[in-house]
Amino acid sequence: MSQPSAPFNDGLSLSRRKFMAGTVSAAAAAPLLASRAEAATPVTAEPKLRQPVVTSLRINKQAYELSLDTRTSLLDALRDHIGLTGTKKGCDHGQCGACTVLVEGKRLLSCLSFAVMNDGKDIMTVEGLASSDGRLHPMQQAFIDHDAFQCGYCTPGQIMSAIGCVNEGHAESENDIREYMSGNICRCAAYPNIVAAILQAREETKGA
Amino acid sequence: MRPFVYEQPADISAAVAIASRFATNDDQPTRANAQFIAGGTNLADYMKLGVAEPNRLLDLNRLKESGLRQIRVTDDGIRFGALVRMGEAADHREVEERYPVIADSLRLAASGQIRNMASLAGNILQRTRCEYFRETSWACNKRMPGSGCAAMLGFNRQHAVLGASEACIATYHGDFAQALIALDAVVHAEGSRGARRIPFAKLHRRPGDTPHIETDLAADEIITAIEVPALPWGRRSLYLKIRDRESYAFALASAAVALDLDGETVREARIALGGVATVPWRASTAEQSLQGKKLDETSAEAAADAAFAEAQPRQRNAFKVELGKRTLVRALLETRDMKV
Q1: Of B3, B87, B117, the CB nearest to A50
Q2: What is the pTM of this model?
Q3: ipTM, 2 decimals?
Q4: Using N-to-C axis directions, what is the helix angle for A155-167 and A138-145, rounded to 10°?
Q5: How far apart are CA B213 and CA A95, in angstroms?
Q6: Does domain A138-207 bear CATH number 2.60.120.280?
Q7: Which residues contact B216 (CB under 8 A, 6 or more apart)?
Q8: Structural domain span for residue B283
């Protein structure tokens, strides 16, 4: 497979976001074809500046193959090339945590990771948390139960970071949670509710 | 961001060979065409800002040498592979038991996500976050030699009071490095001129007239490991970090302390200071002032005075002298009172 099979057309009306993502995806098709032609040349060829690099990512248990400018961050690959806009771009410099995703089960910042460096990796974004029947991940449900957001922009990053934090074993106390979640900034200051949500979802997340 | 070629060398010698091929004689690693990347938390940020402009990135994460990813504890000490992530080392039980100062320094640095990404070798090589270095429209002798220093008369609240020069007052922000310099760590590096061991205290260079020369490394040298010698009394050690907010911020002042005590008398003290100097900073005169003395508030204050005797404050960072002293006094007394 070559073209990302992101679910752009789900039979509903074409929102602006879907239209934009679809456009980007279609535009990405041309360099993809070019790079596949180049892939037929001997592998010993020197890589060249501006030559797209074919990158395989497994995102939310689905395989994607992308042809990317090496400068593309994992965040931009997710949002602009695949259309998974749940992962947010806040500062784009590793200061806010809005772009947090799980790579091989560990939370990291997709804005500071070049997509090509993640070739072959297993990535989980907020879109991959709910089960196929629509049941939310315990951490998502806990954020709703505790009203752990106001504007919601930091929330996908908070939820992914919270799952990583629990799995690292650093959510054993409120102080622990506050310390180990400090890389996720919430400008609405929903912190007490975020801590409460993590405490609620902690045990279920460990088993998830 | 400048376009770059991306390569994944298979082993250390391949990585060195590529870097060597694209390096010119006097290339600084930070200015070379081909640069190494591991976690990327510092380099990717600076590439986005146009501060770092490599046209070739050599990804070290797929190097086949397994020692690069291991923490080995032996009777001689602890050996950290260069690609071990900050979070792994911070959570390592024997590191925490033998050298609390190391575990503290890592745990109190950055954020959970960044600690999962950043390699130990990359961490010690992190570059300053001086605002005038980060923003390319300002004059900065470190980023553009000879252009001047906008921080000197600028908003220099975060800047260094120790080890600065007329050319540069940018702070070295790392925390782990303070633990390493206090513990006499050694860095192993491999380059086209062979393998060598660099005492940690010799790795970073003070700015002097050449602030753009940040380390002793050549452009084609890769740090492969960091070795911390055995120190039986290393259990009595800690890292105290004072900052504007409780977590996820750089130190305004910090202290790495390890003490060998005979009762309350100091046999040997190790002290390093963060957040206040241009390079990882061993406070040798403070260490000497404590030797053979009873450690109490008076001797701790005398040591702190000695540590900051040469401080050169600027308009907005003068508070760091007093804050740095109080940080060290508290760190010394807390280390003395540790139950080990």
Answers
A1: B3
A2: 0.92
A3: 0.96
A4: 120
A5: 27
A6: no
A7: B198, B202, B203, B204, B205
A8: 236-336
